[in-house]
Design brief:
single chain; about 375 residues; mainly alpha; DNA polymerase, domain 1; hpI Integrase, Chain A; three-stranded antiparallel sheet; 7 strands; about 50% helix; elongated
Length: about 375
């Protein structure tokens, strides 16, 4: 009868840190127990630095000593994505989670790729998945899928679960932002003329959006407490969420989104008029919103979009979604009028100037051409009479 080898504790030298030439990473190697046949059961994680690997050895060793050894065996891609999405659900907005979850469910979990173990997954298979999305014309879907895969793998690698080398040879989808459709200057003036005959609740919201470039959720989530009715200064710190729950205010996701904007007299005057409407009608406003619909309730994005489209039709201009008509319109006109790209980026609440530059690259090229033409007189050798 064969004997089973057991050990009550680890012996000296059972845990180690070494450099793997094949993976170009430091390996944290820890003995976590024994299989029934007596073979040692080891847990290995991969790290960029030796210090990180040594720290991982100490953490895993403490788990073994406490009777909670780490799990051995590479997880599948589906398990990695599920764990990351649980992290997203706990730390991001529900809308972000639902967006990530839908792309993962439809593109990965329903395919054989989701059942593959991470140690058997090659960069070529990930590349083929992304290339298929691009080939089908789903460029934005391919970019979102790449962002979720990259974030989940990096997050799992930081936890010491897997190595991030699986994405080392993957090329991101080639996604070029299309120029945003916005109203021309004459169309904008026509829209503003049609807007003057609209009720103050719509006029105030549209004017503030056109003069500040706020995202729609930020615009509809402005509060009276964040608005200075004397100077036109507005502190942007919250957004209105209406999609999954009753209307509620939630903080903005990033620090760069929190910012200060100003409105000029037309929007400033409309804001004061809107506040007078609230107080005159004694509207119930538990969220303290600065902008309410005609019934005194928080605006619903789809309702605001329809009302905006009706004004555009009356003005004889093509209807555009609020994001394009207000936010992109503000940015486009600001850049076309010579606005500094760094200032425009800050007002929009972009995370970086490069994001603003890539979004409005076609406008920056036109501005650069105009600047070059203005400077041409400086370098001419001809003297004027």
């Amino acid at each position: 009868m064969p004997t089973t080898r057991t050990r009550s504790k680890r012996t000296k030298g059972t845990n180690s840190v070494y450099f793997s030439e094949s993976r170009k990473r430091y390996v944290a190697d820890v003995l976590v127990g024994y299989y029934p046949n007596g073979r040692p059961k080891r847990k290995r994680t991969f790290h960029k630095t030796k210090t990180d690997a040594e720290l991982a050895v100490r953490k895993m060793s403490s788990l073994v000593d406490s009777g909670r050894p780490p799990v051995v065996g590479a997880p599948t891609l589906a398990e990695i994505l599920d764990a990351y999405l649980q992290h997203v659900q706990a730390n991001r907005t529900r809308r972000t989670y639902e967006s990530y979850r839908s792309i993962v469910d439809s593109r990965v979990l329903r395919s054989p790729l989701g059942r593959k173990r991470m140690d058997q997954l090659s960069p070529l298979e990930i590349q083929s998945l992304l290339d298929k999305e691009v080939h089908m014309g789903r460029h934005r879907s391919a970019m979102l899928l790449w962002q979720v895969l990259r974030a989940s793998v990096r997050w799992s690698a930081r936890k010491g679960v897997i190595s991030d080398l699986v994405l080392g040879g993957v090329d991101p989808p080639n996604y070029r932002r299309q120029p945003k459709k916005v109203w021309s200057e004459s169309q904008t003036r026509a829209f503003l003329r049609a807007l003057t005959s609209q009720p103050v609740e719509l006029r105030a919201a549209a004017l503030v959006g056109m003069q500040t470039g706020l995202r729609l959720s930020e615009l509809l989530g402005l509060t009276e407490a964040s608005t200075d009715y004397e100077t036109g200064r507005i502190e942007v710190s919250h957004q209105l969420q209406t999609r999954y729950t009753p209307a509620t205010l939630v903080p903005l996701k990033t620090e760069s989104s929190r910012r200060i904007v100003f409105v000029t007299e037309p929007a400033h005057s409309a804001l004061r008029e809107e506040r007078s409407r609230h107080h005159g009608l004694g509207l119930h406003n538990p969220l303290g919103l600065a902008l309410l619909n005609e019934l005194g309730n928080p605006w619903r994005p789809e309702t605001f979009r329809k009302r905006l489209a009706a004004v555009a039709e009356a003005a004889g201009v093509p209807p555009l979604p609020p994001h394009q008509a207000l936010r992109h319109g503000f940015a486009s006109h600001a850049i076309a009028k010579g606005g500094d790209i760094a200032t425009v980026s800050k007002v929009l609440g972009h995370s970086s100037i490069s994001l603003t530059a890539s979004t409005y690259q076609h406008l920056l090229e036109s501005a650069a051409k105009e600047t070059s033409q203005r400077l041409s007189t400086l370098f001419t050798t001809e003297e004027t009479a």
